[in-house]
Amino acid sequence: MTETPLLQQARRFLAALPHCQAIGLSVTAIDARGVTLTLPYSAAIVGNPFTGVIHGGAVTTLMDTTCGIATLCVLPVFEVCPTLDLRIDYIHPAQAHKAIHGHAQCYRVTRDVIFTRGFAYQDDPEQPIAQVMGTFMRLGAGIKGGAAFAGALAQGGQP
User: Residue 150, class by beta-carbon neighbours within 10 Å (0-12 exposed, 13-18 middle, 19+ buried)?
Assistant: First the structure.
């Protein structure tokens, strides 16, 4: 994958979120059209040890983060954009012992809210295991605390 400023910013975004680091999220692809993240399989995030399937909470983290990072694709400068609403519809169970990929894009940007949609899949994006719709509040580039987070993104550390 070609190293672009958007890719660098997305990687710094993930690096600033300890829970994303703990479960191993990584950026697979990103451009102006959207972002794809990967959640690797790990026994530490299995929901049911009898089936070996990744826990739904880890999938929720994957999709919330994927939709959140998709906001970077449409904003001219970084803004703090917390999740307002996230809906995940599970279409069928994930397969055990396999990574899960999440893809999201922004389909509408207003002065106050960014609307996203996406899906989670394993082997084939045409066979999603879940679909997601999310809304994110735009707090603006100058919001208190936002500068610290934006600085962390610029430097690659934690706020």
Answer: buried
